[in-house]
């Protein structure tokens, strides 16, 4: 994968700097490219095309986890092809294949790759960006990024991880009780309580914070889990603007959310056919972040 570097940006005129507006591009699923005044941030690139990048600005690439839908191995080429690139990865140490893969990378790439398992804090190499990780309920981490006076959040797979329906869970519960009577297995109500408690625990780091822009998982695969997740996020923190993600191309769920929860949609930037949002966008289209 080649990364095109745009070399026609001028930073000599104060007016250009003063008039700069932070931009975003939705790359599909959970992927975003954010063009800030001081750097370019790329999150969970899996789909879509990366546009020409500003050669004089640092490029920070984030993968909330190393799983299909959130990660492409081509990101490591950025370290070799771009003059100022760093990679931040959320991953699970228990997956030996991941460790083997990362250890096999050339040393000149490894020197610019940082891995996050659970909660951690790390400054970028130029110390102009602070990255904090939050444990995700499914895989990897979510990222809090503080840069240039802005605070940005990418939720990764941090959502209410109630992935089993009541019917499916009860079938599994009865089966486990028969096969393993010695185990103390949670019933469905306790399972739901566990999922709620887990989300509350992992989002503790977000409580009371103000985010300039957030990318939040409106996961559509498990019934109303995505909607309930967004509602919980709205209780936890404040967001100047936010975008739904983890959509699997099912953009109709965004339309439904806008219809059902206009109070949360008014500062949304998302792929939708509905009015009442901050901005309706298309995948691959550049938009103002705020």
UniProtKB/TrEMBL annotation:
It comes from the Bacteria. InterPro entries: RibonucZ/Hydroxyglut_hydro. Gene3D superfamilies: Ribonuclease Z/Hydroxyacylglutathione hydrolase-like. This is Metallo-beta-lactamase domain-containing protein. It comes from Catonella morbi ATCC 51271.
């Amino acid at each position: 994968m080649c990364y095109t570097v745009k070399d026609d940006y001028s930073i000599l005129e104060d007016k250009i700097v003063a008039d700069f507006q932070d931009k975003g591009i939705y790359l599909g699923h959970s992927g975003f490219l954010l063009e800030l005044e001081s750097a370019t941030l790329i999150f969970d690139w899996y789909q879509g095309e990366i546009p020409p990048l500003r050669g004089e600005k640092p490029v920070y690439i984030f993968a909330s986890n190393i799983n299909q839908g959130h990660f492409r191995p081509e990101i490591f080429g950025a370290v070799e092809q771009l003059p100022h690139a760093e990679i931040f990865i959320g991953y699970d140490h228990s997956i030996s294949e991941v460790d083997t893969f990362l250890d096999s990378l050339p040393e000149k790439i490894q020197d610019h790759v940082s891995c996050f398992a659970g909660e951690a804090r790390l400054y970028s190499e130029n110390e102009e960006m602070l990255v904090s990780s939050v444990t995700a309920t499914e895989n990897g981490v979510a990222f809090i990024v503080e840069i240039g006076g802005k605070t940005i959040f990418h939720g990764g797979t941090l959502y209410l991880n109630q992935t089993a329906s009541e019917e499916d869970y009860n079938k599994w519960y009865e089966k486990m009780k028969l096969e393993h009577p010695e185990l103390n297995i949670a019933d469905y109500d306790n399972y739901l309580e566990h999922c709620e408690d887990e989300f509350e625990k992992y989002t503790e780091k977000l409580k009371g914070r103000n985010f300039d822009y957030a990318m939040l998982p409106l996961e559509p695969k498990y019934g109303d889990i995505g909607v309930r997740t967004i509602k919980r996020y709205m209780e936890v923190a404040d967001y100047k603007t936010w975008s739904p993600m983890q959509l699997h191309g099912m953009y109709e769920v965004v339309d439904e959310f806008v219809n059902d929860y206009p109070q949360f949609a008014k500062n949304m930037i998302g792929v939708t056919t509905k009015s009442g949002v901050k901005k309706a966008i298309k995948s691959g289209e550049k938009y103002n972040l705020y």
